[in-house]
Design goal:
By secondary structure, the protein is mainly alpha-helical. The chain is built from 8 helices and no strands. Helix 2 (28-42) runs antiparallel to helix 3 (46-72) and helix 5 packs across helix 8.
């Protein structure tokens, strides 16, 4: 990585929250994204294929923007927000007619309306952006989502939703594989791509 870092002329990461001494590749999210694409072609479960396919297709705009940030550190926050909002809108457009209820009396009438659509978009963006906010210390974001996906498995088992169980189990496997190289010694980071991807992927599984 040091060789390619020098050859590509990439600038050093200089943010105030930096605690690592050396330049570390922030491509953990890229690896997870590629593995999702590979799983889509390998798995035989049509429901799992459909769900993961929708997630990867919808997330692709945010993937490109966050990858640029991970490499060059020069993407404005508003552009990252807009890419996440677009990704959320694309995913929800696949399931617009069956959006879940808010379970809030004053808002339930809007759950399947355009207002509800916008609220759910902002909700997904909030989860994805929140995952990036907690990222920064080795293992922090990954351990949090290890717990989140474990809870999703428990909930899906309770309602016998096998497709969700398979998807959540796949993400847990990816996170565990990542933790081996990230915690406690940071050989690779999730980066914005990884943090956004985990947050973005957890939200649709809860729908």
């Amino acid at each position: 990585w040091k060789y390619f870092y020098k050859r590509l002329g990439l600038k050093k990461y200089k943010n105030i929250q930096r605690i690592h001494l050396f330049e570390v590749p922030r491509f953990g999210g890229v690896v997870i994204f590629i593995n999702i694409v590979i799983l889509i072609f390998l798995i035989k479960n049509n429901d799992v294929q459909s769900l993961l396919g929708k997630i990867t297709l919808a997330f692709f705009p945010a993937f490109l923007i966050s990858l640029k940030e991970d490499i060059f550190y020069n993407v404005r926050a508003v552009l990252r927000f807009l890419s996440l909002f677009l990704a959320s809108a694309i995913f929800l457009s696949f399931n617009f007619s069956i959006l879940p209820s808010f379970n809030i009396p004053m808002l339930d009438v809007y759950s399947n309306s355009h207002l509800g659509f916008l609220i759910y978009c902002f909700s997904i963006v909030a989860v994805a952006n929140g995952s990036n906010l907690i990222d920064g210390v080795n293992g922090l974001c990954s351990f949090v989502f290890l717990i989140i996906f474990s809870c999703i498995i428990f909930l899906s088992y309770s309602v016998q939703d096998i497709s969700i169980m398979i998807c959540a189990s796949f993400f847990i496997f990816q996170i565990l594989s990542f933790i081996i190289f990230n915690y406690p010694r940071g050989i690779i980071f999730l980066g914005d791509t990884g943090a956004y991807l985990l947050g973005f992927s957890a939200s649709p599984l809860l729908f």
